């Protein structure tokens, strides 16, 4: 769902559809959840949100413990079955969206159009509900598909920027995106990121940095195999 504003000038009226929350409100809520990460990494974020996401985190950590014990006993675990601590990037962007503001009201993902709760990948579009009753995603696919469904295709000039190799990723950041002066949500697919599928965060076009720079590395400097990159602008 979107919000409708009616603008009137000289006796004539027109409706303006507002779909995206303000930049300042999402930046503020993102900073709030990132502060939880500073206290205790991903576990602190999952615990703060609680509900189904935290239960999944706890179950996954138990599985990691069991696997580590098996490895110590000489049991081999296939790479495809290895468990790792869950990435919190999509969870944090979900939180930022839920607690951002659109025309003074909370944005709240659960009341918007939602992608089908299915997918071939582990967490893809799966919906998770926190202890606050709000909807969250654990993968960048859920975030990407939600944004596309509600806001349309990602914005030019980064509708879908693809990369052949790490060198091309680094050149893109150093020569182009690091100078980009618009703010918004970025989503990037990264090869080898099994659970989250990649990384999602906020780009601050005024200060020229990612808003999670204190707790996350910059995945665009050429150390990772970024497959593609998208951007949705936020204003106000």
Structure description:
34% of the residues lie in helices and 20% in strands. It is built from five helices and eleven strands; from the N terminus they run ββαααββββαβαββββ. The chain has a single domain (19-233), classed as endopeptidase fold (from Nostoc punctiforme), CATH 3.90.1720.70. With 236 residues, it is of the alpha+beta class. Strands 7-11-8-9-10 form a five-stranded antiparallel sheet, covered by helices on one side. Strands 1-2 form a two-stranded antiparallel ribbon. It has a two-stranded antiparallel sheet with strand order 3-4. The two termini are 20 Å apart. A hairpin with a 2-residue loop joins strand 3 and strand 4. Mean pLDDT is 92; it is low at 4-10. Helix 1 (23-49) packs across helix 2 and helix 1 packs across helix 3 (89-98).
Layout of secondary structure:
Blueprint: E1 3-9, E2 12-18, H1 23-49, H2 51-72, H3 89-98, E3 101-102, E4 105-106, E5 128-129, E6 135-136, H4 140-151, E7 161-162, H5 166-175, E8 184-190, E9 198-204, E10 209-210, E11 226-233
Antiparallel strand pairs: 1-2, 3-4, 5-6, 7-11, 8-9, 8-11, 9-10
Helix pairs in contact: 1-2, 1-3
């Amino acid at each position: 769902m979107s919000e409708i504003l009616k603008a009137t000038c000289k006796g004539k009226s027109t409706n303006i559809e507002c779909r995206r929350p303000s930049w300042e409100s999402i930046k503020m809520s993102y900073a709030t959840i990132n502060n939880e990460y500073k206290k205790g990494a991903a576990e602190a974020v999952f615990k703060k949100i609680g509900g189904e996401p935290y239960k999944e985190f706890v179950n996954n950590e138990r599985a990691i413990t069991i696997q580590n014990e098996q490895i110590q006993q000489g049991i081999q675990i296939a790479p495809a079955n290895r468990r790792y601590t869950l990435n919190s990037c999509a969870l944090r962007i979900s939180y930022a969206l839920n607690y951002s503001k659109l025309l003074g009201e909370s944005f709240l993902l659960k009341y918007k159009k939602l992608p089908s709760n299915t997918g071939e990948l582990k967490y893809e579009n799966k919906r998770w509900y926190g202890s606050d009753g709000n909807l969250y995603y654990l993968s960048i696919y859920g975030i990407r598909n939600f944004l596309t469904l509600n806001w349309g295709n990602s914005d030019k000039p980064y509708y879908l920027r693809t990369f052949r190799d790490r060198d091309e990723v680094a050149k893109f950041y150093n020569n182009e995106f690091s100078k980009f002066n618009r703010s918004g949500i970025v989503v990037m697919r990264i090869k080898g990121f099994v659970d989250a599928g990649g990384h999602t965060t906020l780009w601050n076009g005024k200060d020229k940095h990612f808003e999670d720079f204190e707790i996350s590395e910059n995945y665009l400097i050429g150390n990772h195999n970024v497959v593609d990159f998208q951007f949705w602008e936020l204003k106000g």
